[in-house]
């Protein structure tokens, strides 16, 4: 065994081994064209090595010529596979250059067979033996084929092609590839070319050994390709890890995930998906997405899945319902996307669902409540903490005349009319700022300028931490009821006045007497004075006294007229502090004559130090007047000595009271009925007096009630009768 | 100035009125005593000659008309002038029938009240005189014998002596004697005086035909 045989055998073995490996790779993956090209290249190098070994041991010129002829075939194959490898694997090189290289080489191969003995020699004249690696090897001597130049050109363009490709690879950043593949290839092609040319021209004595030069290039490529194999191994690991992660994610996800084929059949679902739709995994895989979908009869429009398939949309998100295995509906939030193959063919849908039943229920609740609020007959307005309106309901718009858009973002002072006092607003803000609910009334202005009254309840809306986030105002338009209230009050006043006039007219003869009496006294006094002054000597002292009396009697008459006028006065209520004793005295004064005529004996018991109450003195006089006249009427059937009236004032526990007791016929069994309108026990009378008294007392926040006495109470006499009690709230301060 | 002999009692619950009336009556020379209630009047009243009462109708407790009744029941025939703030006809009729001198309505003219008071005092004097005459006639009548009383009855009935003698069953002469004695005992000069005396004694109503 010689070194040469060993070396070349090793080259061939190495190349063939590498070639077979990559051929197998190509068999596994037909698209791995780089591997096929590499296998072809390795095989060509092996073939070239084998031919070189034969050449070195050729005996005759003819044998050499034949070997040289066949030698061109591996060269052609190597050229094509090398350049092809550059194109496919390095993804570099100019196509036209490749065509030039391959064209020239193919032409050289044709010329190899058509001209001379082969491409290199027209005629090999002899076999020369030279010493190489310690043994004698054969080389050719002969006439060179001039067409050899085509092969030389092919190699030249080969070098240019590879250099150009290496530069392109370098430029795009793959420096290592440019150096290892481009550089190695370039160097060894150039070296092989120079060596072969020199050997041919006998510039050096050497057998052809291109295979030797090709081996490093093959090794470099094999190294690159091995890196690829290693990398793909790493990728496989990565892929497995990724797959595992995907699996875990898929199975453990809090959301239901399904892969659905374009025909809507389930390909893969996770446990969560099964839980949500209420089917087992195997049950789901037998069904289609469409079967599980609840068709809302109200929903219309194209299916989102179809739009995904048509490429109208890339993904979609919607809320929909599935029919669970038990027939219940479940609301889900679905996001779906379509996975397409690289050539755009739909492969499967990815559907991710989230159970939103709870949210839907909450939404339903919110919708119910907001519907109720929206249609509520009371105005609702919600503001943020700065007072900007964030919500108003329809009633609010109806009443105020502002549209929702005109209200949102505005402050409720939009409605301010200036009619409500600033204290109300201060009190309101102080109340709700302290987390309390405020109740009150506003006099506000509508958009059209009209004023209206509203009753408002304003409260802070608290979050879970008890902090106010909004203020909620619930308001009612009370303009109508307020107007009715005012009209009612006016009517009540009118009724009270009418009743007062009627009462006073009952007293008219008594009042006439009260006026007549001072007039009569004045006349008599004046006439007495005339006589006294006519006497000789005139009694001046007595006349002066008479004048004093006339003045006081005149004042007395004036006082009666003043009282009468104020009783008959019609007008607004004059509320002020009142002394109940004074009212009793005043009424007693008006009725005194009447009481005398009716032979009624009056006892008065007025409490000293009586606190004031607040009210309208005329109205309270009216009440007392009614009570006294009623008492007189009740006693009209008694003998004169049994007509006794007691007027008594007292106070206790912040209440002042006056009671009117008589010894009359008493009350009907159901004594409260006497305060009802049109209830009367008299033959004459409308039955309005006490009902009006009752309403007057109510307006004074007081109480009026009656009780029958069996006997014995009034001044120790043995009399039955009735007592009417009038209670009024006492003012805080004591009578001064 | 015609000062009347008796006292004028004033009764009015209104002190102002009482004072004014007192002044007026005193200016005319009357003796006046004023009271503001019937009770005080009754308590302080002393029977005396020819007094009258000016009485307010409307007064607490005992009013004017009630007082009038009580006085009448007590046999005190004091002439009363009523004063009232608002007199009505039934009330005034009642008062007058019960013997009131007048019924005046306030305000009252001075002349009206003064005239009424004078009239009342006059009547008081007359009543006093009439009461004294009646007492004298009753005393004289009591001195007649029963036979003389019978004769007087027949005489004042207008019968002649002959008729009387026939009725009584005696002689005409006897009747003449009785008649003279009756005339003498009763202190009358003529038949007309005797008839008047009989009327004052209340004998005139007796029908002699039925006895």
Your description of this structure?
The complex is a heterodimer of chains A (736) and B (211). Helix content of chain A is 53%, strand content 20%. Chain A has 736 residues and is α+β, with helices and mostly antiparallel strands. A 5-stranded antiparallel β-sheet of chain A has the order 4-3-7-6-5. A 5-stranded antiparallel β-sheet of chain A has the order 9-8-12-11-10, with helices on both faces. In chain A, a hairpin with a 5-residue loop joins strand 3 and strand 4. Chain A starts with a helix and ends in a 7-residue tail after the last strand. Chain B is an alpha/beta fold. Chain B folds into 2 domains: 7-136, Rossmann fold (3-Layer(aba) Sandwich), CATH 3.40.50.2300; 143-200, Orthogonal Bundle (Arc Repressor Mutant, subunit A), CATH 1.10.10. Chain B contains 9 helices and 5 strands, in the order βαβαβαβαβααααα. Chain B has helices at residues 15-27, 38-44, 64-73, 89-97, 110-142, 146-156, 161-168, 172-186, 191-200, and strands spanning 7-11, 31-35, 52-56, 80-84, 102-105. A 5-stranded parallel β-sheet of chain B has the order 2-1-3-4-5, sandwiched between helices. In chain B, strand 4, helix 4 and strand 5 (102-105) form a beta-alpha-beta unit. In chain B, helix 6 (146-156) crosses helix 9 (191-200). The longest helix of chain B is centred in the middle third of the chain and has 33 residues, at 110-142. Chain B is elongated, with a radius of gyration of 23 Å.
């Amino acid at each position: 065994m010689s070194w040469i045989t060993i070396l070349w055998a090793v080259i061939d073995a190495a190349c063939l081994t590498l070639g077979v490996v990559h051929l197998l790779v190509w068999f596994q993956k037909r698209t791995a064209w780089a591997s096929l090209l590499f296998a072809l290249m390795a095989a060509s190098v092996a073939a070239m090595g084998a031919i070189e070994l034969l050449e070195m041991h050729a005996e005759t010129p003819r044998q050499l010529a034949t070997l040289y002829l066949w030698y061109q075939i591996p060269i052609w194959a190597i050229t094509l596979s090398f350049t092809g490898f550059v194109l496919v694997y390095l993804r570099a090189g100019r196509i036209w250059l490749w065509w030039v290289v391959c064209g020239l080489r193919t032409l050289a191969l044709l010329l190899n067979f058509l001209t001379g003995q082969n491409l290199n020699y027209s005629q090999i004249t002899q076999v020369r033996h030279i010493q190489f690696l310690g043994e004698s090897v054969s080389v050719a001597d002969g006439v060179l084929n001039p067409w050899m130049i085509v092969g030389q050109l092919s190699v030249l363009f080969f070098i240019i092609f590879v250099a150009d490709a290496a530069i392109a690879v370098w430029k795009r950043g793959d420096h290592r590839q440019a150096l290892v593949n481009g550089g190695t290839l370039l160097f060894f092609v150039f070296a092989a070319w120079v060596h072969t040319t020199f050997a041919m021209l006998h510039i050096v004595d050497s057998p052809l050994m291109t295979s030797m030069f090709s081996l490093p290039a093959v090794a470099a490529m094999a190294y690159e390709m091995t890196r690829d194999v290693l990398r793909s191994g790493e990728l496989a690991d990565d892929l497995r890890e990724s797959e595992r992660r995907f699996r875990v994610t898929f199975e453990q996800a809090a959301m239901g995930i399904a892969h659905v084929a374009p025909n809507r059949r389930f390909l893969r679902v996770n446990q969560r998906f099964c839980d949500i739709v209420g089917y087992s995994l195997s049950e789901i895989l037998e069904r289609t997405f469409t079967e599980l979908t609840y068709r809302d009869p109200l929903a219309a429009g194209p299916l989102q899945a179809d739009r995904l398939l048509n490429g109208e949309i890339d993904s979609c998100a919607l809320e929909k319902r599935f029919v669970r295995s038990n027939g219940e509906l479940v609301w889900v939030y679905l996001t779906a996307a379509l996975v397409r193959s690289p050539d755009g063919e739909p492969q499967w849908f990815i559907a991710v669902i989230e159970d939103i039943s709870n949210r839907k229920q909450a939404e339903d609740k919110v919708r119910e409540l907001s519907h109720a609020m929206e249609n509520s007959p009371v105005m609702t307005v919600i503001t943020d903490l700065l007072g900007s309106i964030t919500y108003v309901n329809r009633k609010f718009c109806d009443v105020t005349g502002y549209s929702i858009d005109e209200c949102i973002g505005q402050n409720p002072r939009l409605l301010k009319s200036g009619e409500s006092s600033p204290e109300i607003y201060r009190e309101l803000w102080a109340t709700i700022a302290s987390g309390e609910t405020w109740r009150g009334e506003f006099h506000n202005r509508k958009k059209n300028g009209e004023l209206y009254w509203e009753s408002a309840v304003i409260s802070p809306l608290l979050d879970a931490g008890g902090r106010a986030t909004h203020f909620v105002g619930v308001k009612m338009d009370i303009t109508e009821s307020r107007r009715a209230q005012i009209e009612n009050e006016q009517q009540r006043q009118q009724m009270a006045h009418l009743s007062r006039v009627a009462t006073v007219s009952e007293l008219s003869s008594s009042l006439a007497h009260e006026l007549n009496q001072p007039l009569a006294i004045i006349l008599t006094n004046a006439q007495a004075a005339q006589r006294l002054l006519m006497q000789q000597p005139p009694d001046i002292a007595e006349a002066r006294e008479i004048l004093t009396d006339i003045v006081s009697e005149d004042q007395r008459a004036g006082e009666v007229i003043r009282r009468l006028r104020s009783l008959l006065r019609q007008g607004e209520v004059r509320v002020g502090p009142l002394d109940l004793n004074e009212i009793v005295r005043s009424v007693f004064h008006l009725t005194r004559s009447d009481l005398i005529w009716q032979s009624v004996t009056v006892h008065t018991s007025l409490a000293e130090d009586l606190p004031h109450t607040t009210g309208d003195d005329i109205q309270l006089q009216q009440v007392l007047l009614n009570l006294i006249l009623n008492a007189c009427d009740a006693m009209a059937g008694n003998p004169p000595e049994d007509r006794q009236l007691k007027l008594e004032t007292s106070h206790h526990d912040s209440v002042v009271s006056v009671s009117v007791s008589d010894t009359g016929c008493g009350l009907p069994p159901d004594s409260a009925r006497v305060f009802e309108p049109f209830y009367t026990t008299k033959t004459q009378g409308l039955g309005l007096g006490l009902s009006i008294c009752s309403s007057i007392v109510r307006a004074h926040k007081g109480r009026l009630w009656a009780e029958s006495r069996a006997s014995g109470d009034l001044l120790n006499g043995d009399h039955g009768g009735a007592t009417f009690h009038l209670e009024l709230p006492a003012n805080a301060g004591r009578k001064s | 100035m015609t000062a009347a002999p008796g006292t004028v009692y004033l009764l009015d619950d209104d002190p102002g009125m009482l004072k004014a009336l007192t002044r007026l009556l005193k200016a005319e020379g009357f003796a006046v005593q004023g009271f503001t209630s019937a009770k005080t009047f009754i308590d302080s009243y002393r029977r005396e000659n020819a007094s009258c009462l000016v009485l307010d109708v409307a007064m607490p407790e005992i009013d004017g008309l009630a007082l009038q009744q009580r006085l009448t029941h007590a046999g005190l025939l004091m002439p009363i002038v009523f004063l009232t703030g608002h007199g009505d006809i039934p009330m005034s009729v009642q008062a007058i029938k019960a013997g009131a001198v007048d019924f005046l309505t306030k305000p009252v003219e001075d002349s009206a009240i003064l005239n009424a008071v004078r009239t009342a005092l006059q009547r008081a004097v007359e009543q006093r005189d009439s009461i004294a005459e009646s007492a004298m006639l009753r005393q004289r009548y009591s001195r007649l014998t029963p036979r003389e009383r019978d004769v007087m009855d027949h005489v004042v009935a207008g019968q002649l002596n002959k008729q009387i003698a026939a009725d009584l069953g005696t002689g005409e002469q006897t009747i003449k004697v009785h008649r003279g004695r009756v005339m003498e005992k009763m202190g009358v000069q003529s038949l007309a005086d005797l008839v008047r005396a009989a009327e004052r004694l209340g004998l005139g109503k007796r029908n002699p035909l039925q006895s």
